[in-house]
Amino acid sequence: MMGRRELKILVVDDHPIVRGGLRAILETQPGWHVCAEAGNGEEAVRLTLDHAPDVVVIDHSLPILNGLEAVRQVLRSLPDTRMLIYTMHDDDGLIHDALKAGARGYLLKSEDDREVVASVRALAEGKTYFSQRVAKCLLDQLLCTDKTVASQTLTAREREVVQLVAEGESNKSIARRWGLSIKTVDTHRTSAMKKLNLRTAVDLARYAIRNRLIEP
Predict the structure, then answer these.
(1) pTM for this one?
(2) Is 80 in contact with 32 (CB distance < 8 Å)?
(3) 32, 48, 140, 208: most buried, per Cβ within 10 A?
(4) How far apart are CA 9 and CA 123, in angstroms?
């Protein structure tokens, strides 16, 4: 339990209206405070490291760095941060990936305000939280253990390259962003495309959309 001290929450979504709505819902609770808002994955990681919130409510489909990669990066530095995925997507592959990344809650945007509050409270108390439809997807996975997800074969850096290329970034701009050589970025890109059996940037973009790395 967090006791009576203030509960610090970071809200991450690329739509300002969604962030504002979440803030309004969460700050109705006594002692709860939204300490910061982020509009992309990179900003989410930076603000989490700056503010050290107790709970991060984060969308999956984010610009620059998707939500799952942001979760992984945050938990490498702040392993006690409770990460709640808040998204419109309920496919079982994405739910599996979210849990593997370290998220301890998964809530659909179609759920009502009470579910939002209940999910954040559960994570703040050290518990997990999954909406009913998400829990059903998890059960279906247990009953179909031989199902595989192609994206699991990629390294974290390869997944980031896939997202950025799909968003229209060139190898040169990605290299500049990360402080790497263009050759290194090209190596990650080539490796990812080989693992996924893709041939062109268009194929890569289709893969990213299909696997919710970017929005269509």
Answers:
(1) 0.68
(2) no
(3) 48
(4) 11
> Which tokens sit at 60?
């999956």
Would you say how long the chain is, in residues? Answer: 216
Q: Which two three-digit tokens encode residue 10?
A: 């970071």
DSSP state string for the chain: --TTSPEEEEEE-S-HHHHHHHHHHHTTSTTEEEEEEESSHHHHHHHHHHH--SEEEE-SS-SSS-HHHHHHHHHHH-TT-EEEEEES---HHHHHHHHHHT--EEEETTS-HHHHHHHHHHHHTT--EE-HHHHHHHHHHHT-TT---GGGGS-HHHHHHHHHHHTT--HHHHHHHHT--HHHHHHHHHHHHHHTT--SHHHHHHHHHHTTSS--
